[in-house]
Specification:
By secondary structure, the chain is of the alpha+beta class. The protein is built from ten helices and twelve strands.
């Protein structure tokens, strides 16, 4: 295990009022669905992992998917501006599996475990109040985004601490600015999700490439109207409705290939948008399982849960997330992270 004290400190820093140690410390509220993944014809050229091979395209690879709200509270605030998560488990042959964990931000909040702990401590919820018009004008004059207005009944939030921290640490600014203005999707299947970290894939020709993955919704990206009062508890109902009566929803798995000069080990730094992108396959969602609490809330995803053909980069945050996720899973008595027979 990485520094066990640092791992524990990070998890405890993410615990906030309104959360529960019997649930995930972040992305606490979620809903799980099932489906299958079929690789594109060109996928195996770039990665020889089992779920990208031609045999997987015949009947598809079975998957479990958990969508989530980013906040670490058990109360559901679906209509609040918040980062969303999408964790996918691919079930391979011989009882093995592999995970892809992603969120609606293209970059992470900190470049190292130590700086992330510092960020998490400073971004803990603090008292908030509506900014005056003059305060907002001052922010605009300083070329800064003004703090968003609190939602009805909201007395604490992480925005104040996170934005103050980002003003002193330039590497935190892209993620914090995006997170503070990201909005709320009309559906979990109307958002783009990014795996954030760099991975190393091995192609059919043996060539190794440094890549980043993202899920693009076939239905397109769409947020709720920020001028209307936010709704609660609509995302699960929306997903159930979309997947009822044999209907399905789909995502494309996109893979961006890094080039010389790109930072492969710092997830706070985005790559140039003109980098080559490959469509690696299609994910089809077909059902919301009924046993949410017994199955998906105990299921333990892990970004380090990899398989042959996909290796982790040297990103230190990716490395410690392996143990942070495992510690969190053990604390809430989740299904143990399935590292047997996998990378790491």
């Amino acid at each position: 295990m990485e520094n066990k004290h640092l791992v524990k400190d990070i998890v405890h820093a993410l615990d906030i009022d309104g959360g529960s140690t019997e649930r995930r410390p972040v992305h606490t509220v979620g809903v799980g669905a099932t489906g299958f993944f079929k690789p594109s014809p060109m996928a195996q050229r770039f990665c020889v992992a089992e779920h990208f091979l031609p045999k997987a395209a015949k009947k598809g690879v079975r998957v479990d998917i958990r969508f989530s709200n980013g906040m670490g509270v058990v109360e559901e605030h679906d209509g609040w501006s918040d980062v969303r998560g999408m964790a996918v488990r691919f079930y391979l042959e011989n009882g093995q599996s592999t995970d892809l964990v992603s969120m609606t931000l293209p970059v992470f909040f900190a470049p190292t475990p130590e700086t992330f702990l510092d960020f998490a401590l400073n971004a803990r919820p603090k008292p908030c109040q509506r900014a005056t018009p003059w305060q907002k004008i001052k922010s605009y004059l300083q070329l800064q985004l003004p703090l968003p207005d609190p939602y009805p009944g909201q007395t604490e939030r992480p925005n104040e601490g996170a934005i103050a921290f980002a003003s002193k640490h330039v590497w935190a600014q892209p993620a914090v600015i995006d997170a503070s203005s990201i909005g709320a999707p009309v559906s979990y299947v109307r958002a783009t999700y990014h795996a954030v970290h760099t991975f190393i894939v091995t192609g059919k020709d043996g060539q190794r490439r440094w890549v980043r993955f993202s899920w693009a919704p076939i239905a397109g990206v769409l947020n709720t109207d920020p001028k209307k009062p936010p709704e609660d508890r609509y995302l699960k109902k929306d997903l159930e409705k979309r997947l009822s009566h044999g209907r399905t929803e789909r995502f494309s798995l996109m893979m961006q290939i890094g080039e010389a000069g790109d930072d492969f080990n710092d997830s706070t730094r985005q790559w140039p948008p003109h980098r080559t992108r490959v469509m690696m396959g299609t994910l089809t969602l077909n059902k919301v399982r009924e046993d949410q609490q017994e199955y998906f809330e105990k299921l333990s995803f892990n970004p380090w849960h990899l398989t042959d053909g996909i290796d982790p980069s040297d990103d230190p945050v990716l490395r410690i997330r392996k143990d942070v996720y495992a510690f969190s899973s053990n604390r809430r008595q989740g299904t143990p992270c399935p590292f047997s027979g996998t990378k790491g």
